[in-house]
């Protein structure tokens, strides 16, 4: 039997052409079938409807580390993600020995196969290492390695994104190999010169991992990776908007330079309460998780808080919301989500005027 369409009303709805409202989003079979204008005197709902958020970099949240998550841990991660408006995400593993990845990747694969309506969709794994380089940050240097093409060829099909450093021996060949199997390559934790950076982008790299963090920066005569990334329109750049990783003025500059479509918000969240990320000891201090020596080790920010941080920094709300939804979806080639318009998945987030999450729908199923 065919179920009746779902109606989700809101005072404002963000569509690809801008805000409209009051309006009703009609959902049929998990897909948006219409966005209908309501009369001006329609009852107010106190909420704004925007596309579901897509987070490409989640190492853990609160007390659950993705690297060790198993069984009911995934249910808790689902709840924590829905509470911040995330409807699609990439569980992320940082640098560890090559032999250590198989077990957590297998658990991620099993979690991805769960058929649980209304849960955030695992769109694929993100491997942030071990093929990173000159700016390792919190990554344990003893486990850094040059790309191993045999290991890459044996990765499970759910690996969707991998961060590597272009200065590593064999990086260009690895970028090509990953691109050929439709894995998106990001460049990060790097102090690459311009030549290797350009060669990696020529080979198919399409993202830069957490711009300004874990890389050489900008100098007016000796530009670093951050400058290469901002100047190359072929790559999008992820940004950690937690108020710690990026000064608000730098965040505003990044959005202005990247424009809508190339700026991608990620949380880079870790299990800060558990005190570990992939076995690396961390503690929350001065607003962010850190190693004992003070090195930043991910964030404790949620995606809705990142949007608020952007707006507080002077970024237009529409640009911040695009960076949290349509832009990351586009990076992974997900054309079925990231916008509130007919034909897209009904992945929706209801926000209060204060930009706090008051409701989340995944393929039309409310949380």
- The fraction of residues assigned to DSSP E strands is 25-35%
Determine the N-to-C terminus distance.
23 Å
General shape: globular
Class derived from helix and strand content = alpha/beta
User: Could you tell me the number of beta strands?
Assistant: 24
CATH class of the largest domain: Alpha Beta
Helix content: 10-25%
CATH topology of the largest domain: TIM Barrel
Can you put this structure into words, describing what you see?
The protein has two domains: 6-49 and 343-366, Urease, subunit C, domain 1 (Roll); 53-331, TIM Barrel. It starts with 5 loop residues before the first strand and ends with a strand. It is globular. The mean pLDDT is 96. The strands form six sheets. Strands 7, 10, 11, 12, 13, 14, 15, 16 and 17 form a nine-stranded parallel β-sheet that branches. 51% of the residues are buried. The protein has helices spanning 73-83, 102-112, 149-153, 171-180, 194-203, 225-231, 248-258, 303-312, 317-324, 326-331, and strands at 6-10, 12-15, 18-20, 23-28, 31-37, 48-51, 53-58, 60-61, 64-65, 86-94, 121-122, 125-128, 159-164, 184-187, 207-208, 236-240, 263-266, 276-277, 280-281, 283-285, 288-290, 348-351, 357-362, 365-366. 24% of the residues lie in helices and 26% in strands. With 367 residues, the chain is α/β, with parallel strands linked by helices. The longest helix is centred in the first third of the chain and has 11 residues, at 73-83. Helix 4 (171-180) runs parallel beside helix 5 (194-203) and helix 8 (303-312) runs antiparallel to helix 9. The chain is built from ten helices and 24 strands.
